[in-house]
Design a protein that fits this description.
single chain, 6-stranded parallel sheet
């Protein structure tokens, strides 16, 4: 028997396509940093920093990976990793620490400005609005998008940034935290997401229902797991489950 009172959603590649935005954000915030720094140092009649885009980006990635390895509890807190990597890179390149901290923070502001420029699926707002009339909704994301800057945030009274909990999915903590804040139990909740390992399996293992957003897939699904090709198919799935109840 299925009786739902809450639905939790992954965000990236579930309610919007994320790849193009991330590519634009990755390149854009770092190019902005190099150009803004060059202009600032020129105005101060100081030599440019010894940073080029290609070498700088490669070093930036390596430093993030090093921080994730050295501080494993922060491995899912992508904003923290980026800040620490940029601060260290800029200081190593010759900036005083105070300036490195300020410029790293400015680059992350640009990162978040670009990161939030996702385009939700056309059906997303209407879908969430309709579901909110019958179910309590929450967002659970491993990403570091500032959801409050996105119009869809209005549909999520509960929003869990798993990395900031120091427990990125598939850790059960973000799911359990969302369920607690929604005042429900796993058996009365459904999680919707595109990742088999980070969304579907941890939700199902907790006893939640799971809607796997995947265009194709012919494997046998575990109990309480259902596949939809697109999030717009979710109402039909819920209706089918309720009729079974």
């Amino acid at each position: 028997m299925v009786t739902l009172d809450a639905i939790t959603f992954d965000l990236d590649d579930t309610l919007w396509d994320n790849q193009g935005v991330m590519l634009k954000t990755e390149e854009g915030h770092y190019r902005w940093l190099l150009e803004a720094l060059a202009a600032w140092r020129a105005a101060r009649q100081e030599a440019p920093l010894p940073l080029t885009y290609d070498e700088g980006v490669a070093d930036y990635l390596q430093r993030r990976q090093q921080w994730a390895s050295q501080v494993p509890e922060r491995r899912g807190d992508f904003t923290w990793l980026r800040l620490r990597a940029l601060e260290a890179q800029l200081e190593t390149s010759g900036l005083p620490r105070s300036a490195a901290l300020l410029w790293a923070a400015a680059a992350m502001n640009e990162f978040h400005r670009l990161r939030v420029q996702v385009t939700p699926h056309p059906e997303a707002a209407g879908l969430l609005s309709a579901l909110a009339e019958r179910y309590r909704l929450a967002a659970i994301t491993n990403g570091n998008i500032h959801l409050k800057r996105q119009p869809l945030a209005a549909h999520f009274p509960v929003a869990i940034a798993a990395g900031e909990l120091l427990a990125p999915k598939p850790d059960p903590k973000p799911f359990l935290t969302a369920l607690e804040r929604l005042n429900t139990v796993p058996q009365r909740a459904m999680h919707v997401g595109d990742s088999w390992n980070e969304d579907v399996l941890p939700a199902q293992q907790l006893g939640m229902h799971a809607a796997w957003v995947a265009e194709c897939g012919d494997q046998t699904l575990p109990e309480r797991v259902h596949r939809v090709a697109h999030v717009k198919e979710l109402p039909e799935l819920i209706e089918w489950l309720e009729k079974r109840a």
